[in-house]
Each structure stands twice: as C-alpha cells, then as structure tokens.
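Forum: Protein Structure Q&A
Topic: Joint prediction for protein chains with partners

I've read a bunch of threads here and the consensus seems to be that you should model interacting components together rather than docking separate models afterwards. I'd like to see that in practice. Below is the full input, 749 residues plus whatever partners are listed. Could one of the regulars post the assembled result?
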Amino acid sequence: MDAIILQILNGLDKGSAYALIALGLTLIFGTLGVVNFAHGALFMIGAFCAVTMQRILTLSYETIDATKTDFLGNALKVKTPYVESWFGPEMGASIIDWAVPLAILFSIPIMLLVGYVMERGLIKHFYKRPHADQILVTFGLAIVLQELIKHYYGANPIPTGAPDAFKGSFDFGTLLGFDPNTVIYPYWRMVYFAFAAVIIGAVFAFLQFTTFGMVVRAGMADRETVGLLGINIDKRFTIMFGLAAAVAGLAGVMYAPINSPNYHMGMDFLVLSFVVVVVGGMGSLPGAVLAGFMLGILESFASMNWIKDIVPGIDQIIIYLVAIIILLTRPRGLMGRKGVMED
Amino acid sequence: MLGLSKKDTKFLFIVIALTAATPILLQPFPEGSAMSQFNAGYPDLMQRFAIFGIFAIGFNILFGLTGYLSFGHAAFLGVGSYSAVWMFKLLSMNVLPGIILAIIVSGLFALVIGYVSLRRSGIYFSILTLAFAQMSFNLAYSVLTPITNGETGLQVTLNDPRILGQQVAANGNVPPTNFFGLEMGSSLKIPVGGWEFTFNAGYYFCAVIAILAFYLSLRIFRSPFGLMLRAIKTNQTRLNYTGLNSRPYTLAAFVISGMYAGLAGGLLASMDPLAGAERMQWTASGEVVLMTILGGVGTMMGPILGAGFIKYFENIFSKINENVLHQWFSFLPDGLEGFVIWVAEHFVGSGWHLTSGVLFMMVVIFLPGGLVEGGQRIGKKLKRKKSDGDGDDAEHHPKQSPHVAE
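Posted by a regular:
Agreed with the consensus. Here's the joint model:
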C-alpha cells in the first residue's frame, strides 16, 4: 500500500508537467486549429528563464580581500554578487536562494511576448495551410529555438536549485500511519503539483467565468459566427496563444529544480505531451489534463522494480503502449468530441 | 524501354550518367587551391549522397504519393543498420546478406508499425509514428542493450563467429566489408593535372543500388498502384465512397518506404560497420523530411537533390570555423566584420543543426514545392521573357506536358 501511494505521488509531478503542456497544446489547437510542434521548446525556454534568473542574480564583482591569502601568499579574490552588496549579505543571499520562484515573475512577460511574436510572425500565415505544413514549420522552429539555447547555454544540464526552504522531504508515511521514511516526498514536488493545480484551475476559471473566456469558447465552437457578431476573434486567439505559451513557460520554470534544464528537454516532453493530447482526445481541455495525470502516474508505476522485473523496459514504453491501445479502441481519445480533428 | 516511357528512359539515363560521373563532377576545384575545401569528391561523402538519396526516395513514396507525413522513418534506418551489423558479426563481412536482412527486418518492422499507425491519418499518424520511433530509440538505449549494445553502439569485433567468412583478416584486424571480395573501402585514385579523382568501390556499389531504387520508384510512380496512392492523397474520403479500401494501399506504401529506409541503413552499416541508436532519434527522422521537402515533395528528382544538398552543406558548414570566417570577411570594415562573423558563427561548425532548422522553416514558408518547383518557376520566367519578343500568345502553344518530375 505504501509503495502504491509513493508511486502515485511520484507520478503527480511529471503528470503535472504533461498536463500543463498538453493543456497549452489543446488551447492552441482548439482556438487556432494549429498543431504546434514548437510547444515543447516553449517549455524549455521557460526552464531556461529560471536559469537566466539565477545567473542574473548571481552576477558578481571581484574584490581583493587582503585579510585572506591562498597557499602561495597572494591575496584572495572574493566574489560578491551585486544583489548582496545592494540588499546586504543576508537579504541578498535569500534573494538568490529564491531565484526560481522569482523567475516566475520574470518569465510571464517573456513568455507572453514570445508567444505573441510567434503567433503574429509565423503561425498567422499558416492558418489556411495544411496540417502537414504547420507541423513542419513549427518543427523547424523547435529545432531553431533548441539550437539557439544550446549555442548560448551549452549542451550540459544546468543545475538550478529550489529555495532552501523546500529542499527537504515530507514524510507522508507518518501522516498516514505507515512506518516513517516509507512514503517520503520532496517539498518542491508538492509545490509543483499545487502550482500546476492552481494554473489549471485558473485557466479553466478564465475560460468559464470571464466574458473574454466566453467569447473564446464561442470562437472555438463557431469562429465565423463570432466574427459576424463584430468581435475581433483573431485578436483574442492571438492572446490565447500567448497565454498557452505562458502556461508552458511557467511549467518549465517550476520544473527546473526537479530536472536540471538541458536544451533537448523540450522535445522529450513534446513527444509525450502529444501522446497525452491524443489519449485525452484532441481539442478536449479536461481530457488533456486527465490524460496528463493518468499517464504520469502510469509511467511512475511502470518504473517500479518488481514490474520492471516482469516486463523489462516497460517504463520506457508504457505511455506509447497506452496511446496505441487507446487509439485503436477509442479513436477519439478518452474525452474527444465528435467532429474535432476526425482525420 | 525497361517499361518506361521515352521521356522517363531519357531521365533515367541522365540520372545514371550523373551518378557515374559524380566523382569527377564533385571535384571541380584543383587540389591545393583555395576553393578545394568546397570539393565533395571524397568517398565518404559521396556514399552518403547515394545512401541518403535512397532514404529520401523511399520517404517520398510514402509522403509524396499518399501525403502521410511520417515522423519516425529514422527507426527503420536504425533497424536496418543493426540487422546488417548483426549479419557481419554472425555470417560474414560480405555486405549482401547484411543488406538483404536489413530490408527484410525493416520491412517487417514497418508492417507492424504501419498496421497500427495507419489506422489514423493526418497529424495522428505523424504523432503515432513519432511515438513509435521514440519508443524504439528508448528501447535501443535501455532494455535491448544485448542486441544494440546501448550507448556504445554495435560494432564488429575479432571474437565474432562469422561462420561463413574469415574471422580475422591476414593483418590481424577485423576483415573489411566486401562484396564477394570487392572491398568497400578500396578506391582508385587518378590524378589528372591538378585534380585528383577518387573512384571508390563503396560509392559505386551504393550508386548502383541507388539507381535500382530510383528505377523502382519511377515504376511505382507511373504504375496503377502509384495512381491509387495519389488518389488517396487527393481525396481519401471520396476513394472510400467508391467502395475501395484504401488501407492495403497505404500499408503497402508504408512498408515499401520502410524497406527503402532499411536498405539505406544496411548500406550505411556496410560502408562503416557500426550502428548506434542515435540514428533512430527524432532529429534523424526530421532530417529525411527536410531532404524531401527541400528537394520537392512528390517529385522524382527532388528527394535526391534534397539529400545531396543537405549532406553537402552539412559537410561544408561543419568544416568552416572562426578563422575561415575571418579570412572571408576580412574585406569588410572592422565593426561590420565583427558583426557579420558574430552572426555567421551561429550557423557554422557545430551550428549546422541551427542552419538546417532555419532552412527547414524557409523552405516550408517560401518554397513549399522545394527546389524542383523553384527551378520550374525560374524556367517559366525565362521562357516567358523569350516568348515576349515573338508576340505569340500562350494559347497557340500546346500546353507544356508535365515535367517528369511532377
């Protein structure tokens, strides 16, 4: 029992990432009808926003400290981050420590801008082109973004730590009456899950309870009629694209402490997120979220040792297997609607 | 002749002539001259032209004719490579059994993947094939390590049984790959004036197979089967309404193109007997898509042109480094030179992938028909200019019959 709870918990954080990316993909697909293969790259850019924030905060100047010497007798150079000299050492250190949460503020405008530029500059011209062209051009864009990141940040993963306050783990075992240290779960992953839940809730609330969201939903259902009513639906869809980019970016920022960002993380997640979208049902927002969590948890179950002993390698392919089975038995996905991307 | 129309026969002979003369044509600059770095007449690169030409021709049979965009074709290439290397390990270093097994195994693999993936079309199909390829890639890296040798890649060693051939060559090394005694690595170097032409056995072996593959695809394009595939691309729903089940046709196209990819993989292993999982990665699948659309989807010549173009520039761009750039742009004023070099630096050396990504986008945005269409457009413009002087109107000229490449 404790092992099962542990695996469910482990699956939640990855599932949250899948759900957030799949949510953005579905939003873009539902509003603009565009298949965005560069969505994983947006997730990666988000993660690198966190890296950049950390680098900006640790920008330092060097001073020569005459009181300390190295083993040759030369005076030691001491690096002091600017932040520490501005806010005092203690305050400065804690600001640096909180780099990742601070990066959220920094990433939202960046991601909105990236999304806006992408939509106006590129995707706009592809509404009327076949889906194959959309896939190809966004695929090319994904390669470009990924290679640019590789050029400037290098090919190695860059460790980006969570704030010290969240470094430890929470012992669920004692809470639920199991032995201590059987079900432990890092705080940051809990934060990630809570964060994802808030974002997903916010997106749904935005679509459900605001006038803007209502118009967007109407536009998803029947774009032409909404246009005939004198509403500039294109503009709203562009904003939705920016929003979807921001969701992917935020998912990336918060994911940085869980998995050190590297340039190909976007593609790794993209392939899986597409599978998630397909399993959830193309164009269905609840389906995307549900399938994201479901597949994340399934994946973590499959990586349990005794299951791997029975079916070796199952953890690598479980998601694809599920996708294949779902597509063959329920071609529309779990919650797919009739008439949405039937072919 | 050969079951082809007159025009196609001519076309085929042009292709044969070009392939045969490739070692000379690709060596236009004398050895030691400043431009010699743009030469491409060395065996390794020419082999790649032929091999990736085959890969792209095969991909074009699927994507060009049926319109099904597969994002997982590299998986078949990888499977082909692995099976060929296993043949070298177990049977002999003769490339023939390796290539045959590569085609068979990749064909079976394509049958299974195609059977599942082809149940959906459009983007679902692309995603499914991508998922399958990633799955194969992951498996090759992890569980299948006994077969694929994981990250190190599969290699031939001295301890392999090789029951039909030599286990160890006379010089104590692993014997080289050969075709009934003709070593793939052997080449004939003929110096002519300042030039040196290399005629490599491996290249000609690949070239012969590439021409056969090209001939076969020409026949497929012109056959009733090819027509049926085009009908699927044009309007599958209507085809289904006429009472035809289109799936056997698409599946056949998928398997054929998978076998082409396997053949390319087998050849790749024959030229250099090792196989690694990175050949199956999504970037490799993306590369063949790029080759095909760059050359021109659905055209005969396009994929070969695209493959040659990509492989040539990959080679050239990877060779250029900062020093070379400084030499080139030294005529510019200082500030501008620095800026130009700063920009260019992103795209050369290890930045080739960035270049290919940009190229990818440019082609899709501006030239969806690829190089072949671009050439046709230029040709049309030139023709129009000429005919302006004659004062004829277009109606009095018979409409130009479609080019072979269409």
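The domain at 6-280 of chain B is CATH 1.10.3470 (ABC transporter involved in vitamin B12 uptake, BtuC).
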